[in-house]
Known about the structure:
By secondary structure, the protein is mostly beta strands. The chain contains two helices and 21 strands.
Amino acid sequence: MLRMTLAALVVAAASVATSDAQAAPLAFHHTGRLADTLGVPLNQDVTLTVSLSTTEGGAAFWSQEFQDVPLQDGYFGLEVGAGPPALTTEDLDHSEVWLTTAFPGGSTSHRLLAVPYAARAEVANSLQGEGAVVQMATVQTRTQGTYTAPPSGLGSAITPMDIVITPRKAGNKVLLEWTLNGEIHQDAVFLVTGNGSLLPLATNASNNRWAGTSATDYDQNESSTPTAYTVTIVDENSLDTASTYQVFVRSSSSGTYTFALNRALANTGADAVEATLSVGTATEIWQNP
């Protein structure tokens, strides 16, 4: 009969997955020493089974078998949790977890303490701090098109620049930034909506046609070089659902104008009449409760 004369549990590493579709896998090192009944350390290969339960000696809710584990002066080292089956943060989501190591002729149990438990927290809840970047969604396109900018309503959505993002937590700030390359008459503004509604501060309280998130520049030559327009705003009331952010263009006077995306109004591209790229980003920024 064998006996385990020493057992120690050491967390060496935990790898956290970024996929939302499954719980994050983790792994840790487990070491121990096996000896015979006379206390002589063993030098042979053995089969060991590591299992987890919620009470000492209780039914296992997770286990992993290790075959042909080499013993050197009785010592062994195992990487527990890498699988199969893989250990996940959900497996450690109990008020108390016991680790049992079964060897030929016996077993020994140890309660997991604070260090292993630190790995069970979800990444967003345990590692994110105020102001940390959680994720980013982007759009970039060389699509060319024209969009009418009327003097009423919201104007027209520049749909190739739509950005879709699902915030990890409601209330996180979403920094929205677009660089729109194109051309339009100088009397126009850009507006931003989230899920079909104007974002606060995207325009003024009365939504006057001359009020927007940003304005176009003064350029009376609409037949040559396009302009890079910057549109920036923060959604401070985000939802934890798929959210679509759109840029609209609207006239700021009584006239109706046309916005040309990634081109000049009079030309789709030629020498000295550039064709361009437009880019947009949505950056989710963690906010503590």
